[in-house]
Structures are given as structure tokens and as C-alpha cells.
């Protein structure tokens, strides 16, 4: 392969690449429709011109037929009058118009065929343009859908999905921690309330016991006189009674200190 052939191939490849990149499907469809409509206008003009020529040829043919008929009558009239020479001239003129009429008839038949062909082509082109317009709208819709999908895919590729999911997981963890703290606070509040009521109940028992002790201390010997006589103590019980009194006194003193601290 020569150098110039290689250069030609490289230039052609680059030009084709530029053309492919420059081709916008939607614009190309619009351009194709415009070109087809221009062809339709030209075809209509051609059909109109052919029909006009056909009409003109048809008129010329009819005029030739009228002249043929006229000179036929003139030839008959000349023979009736006995002028054979004049009749011959009339027939010669008739022959001329007959030849013209024959040529016009051939041209008229040809033009009629051309008009019919152009009319069929015109109908086909109009049908193709209508079909092309329908396809254009469908292709435009497909192009729009493809562009939207391409943009969506680009957005999806650009999104950091793992980072977003990690953020959701962190937020979920925070919500769970907050719910746990709220539940713990509720449980602690309930426990504090129960402990307060328990302290109130314990305090009332101590108060009742203290009141009973105070009442016993206030009554003193009088209360002991009214009490029933105890059985006589044995020597062993008498020896242990002072020690028992000391224990009671110590317990009473401890109760007083506890009451003072409350």
C-alpha cells in the first residue's frame, strides 16, 4: 500500500468519525422529512406540468379532429357542386390534419401514461412521508427514553452507594441508642418511685415503733403496776437480768441515734 493510499484511508476514517459524532438522530430525521417533502413538492409540480401538457395535447388533438371533420364535409360539398379539384384540395387538407391528429394521439397516449405513473409515485411518496413522520415520532420517543436512561445510569454510577448506606446505618444506630436511653430513663424513673414509696412505708413502721416506745417510757412505774405479776425468778435468772437490761439499753440507745439521724 502506497503512502498516499494510507493517508487517504486515515483522512477518510477521521472524516467518517467526525460525521458519526456530528450526526444527531433527531436532527437527521427532521432533515430526512424535509428532503422528502421537498421531493414531494417537486413531484407535484412535475405532475401538474405533465397534466397541463396532456390537456394542451388533448385540445390540439380535438382541434385536429374538428378540422378533419370540417374538411371532410368541404370535400363532400365540393363534389356535390361538381368541383372535383376543390374536393381534392379539401381531401389533401384533411389528410394533413389526419396525420397531425395521429401524432397528437400518440403523444396524448404517452402523456396519459406518464400522468398515471406520476400520480402513483405521488401517492406512494405521500404515504412514505406519512409513514416517515410516524416513525420519526416513535424514534424521537425512543431517543428521549434512551437519553433519560443514560442520564439515570450516569447518576447511579456517580452515586456513592456504600457511603450512603453507611450513613443510614449510622443514623439507625443513633436512633437505637436514643431509644435505649429513653427506655433506661423510664425504668430508672419507675425504680426511683418504687424506692420512695418503700422508704415511706419503712419510715411509717419506724415511726409507729418509736411512738410505742415513747408511750411506754411516759407511763413508767404506773404501767408496770398494772401489768400482771411475773413469776418468781430463779437465782440463775436473777444473775442474768442485769446483763439483759444492758443489752436493751444499748439497743434503745441505738434506736435513738437512728431516729436523730433521720
Automatic annotation (TrEMBL):
Residues 212-262 are annotated as: Disordered. Residues 253-262 have a biased composition (Basic and acidic residues). It holds the Pfam family PspA_IM30. Keywords: Coiled coil. Residues 47-81, 108-149 form a coiled coil. Belongs to the PspA/Vipp/IM30 family. PANTHER family: MEMBRANE-ASSOCIATED PROTEIN VIPP1, CHLOROPLASTIC, PHAGE SHOCK PROTEIN A. This is Phage shock protein A, PspA. It comes from Tolypothrix tenuis PCC 7101.
Amino acid at each position: 500500500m502506497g503512502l498516499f493510499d494510507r493517508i487517504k484511508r486515515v483522512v477518510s476514517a477521521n472524516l467518517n468519525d467526525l460525521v458519526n459524532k456530528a450526526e444527531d438522530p433527531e436532527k437527521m430525521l427532521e432533515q430526512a422529512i424535509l428532503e422528502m417533502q421537498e421531493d414531494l413538492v417537486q413531484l407535484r409540480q412535475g405532475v401538474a406540468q405533465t397534466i397541463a401538457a396532456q390537456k394542451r395535447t388533448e385540445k390540439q388533438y380535438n382541434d385536429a379532429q374538428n378540422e378533419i371533420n370540417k374538411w371532410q364535409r368541404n370535400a363532400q360539398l365540393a363534389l356535390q357542386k361538381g368541383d372535383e379539384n376543390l374536393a381534392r384540395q379539401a381531401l389533401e387538407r384533411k389528410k394533413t390534419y389526419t396525420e397531425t391528429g395521429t401524432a397528437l394521439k400518440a403523444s396524448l397516449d404517452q402523456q396519459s401514461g406518464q400522468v398515471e405513473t406520476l400520480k402513483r409515485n405521488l401517492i406512494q411518496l405521500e404515504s412514505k412521508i406519512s409513514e416517515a413522520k410516524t416513525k420519526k415520532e416513535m424514534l424521537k420517543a425512543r431517543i428521549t427514553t434512551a437519553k433519560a436512561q443514560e442520564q439515570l445510569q450516569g447518576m447511579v454510577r456517580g452515586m456513592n452507594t456504600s457511603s450512603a448506606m453507611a450513613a443510614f446505618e449510622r443514623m439507625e444506630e443513633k436512633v437505637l441508642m436514643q431509644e435505649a436511653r429513653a427506655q433506661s430513663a423510664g425504668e430508672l424513673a419507675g425504680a426511683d418511685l418504687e424506692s420512695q414509696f418503700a422508704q415511706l412505708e419503712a419510715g411509717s413502721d419506724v415511726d409507729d415503733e418509736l411512738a410505742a416506745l415513747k408511750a411506754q417510757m411516759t407511763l413508767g412505774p404506773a404501767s408496770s403496776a398494772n401489768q400482771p405479776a411475773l413469776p418468781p425468778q430463779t437465782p440463775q435468772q436473777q444473775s442474768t437480768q442485769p446483763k439483759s437490761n444492758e443489752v436493751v439499753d444499748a439497743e434503745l440507745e441505738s434506736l435513738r441515734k437512728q431516729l436523730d439521724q433521720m
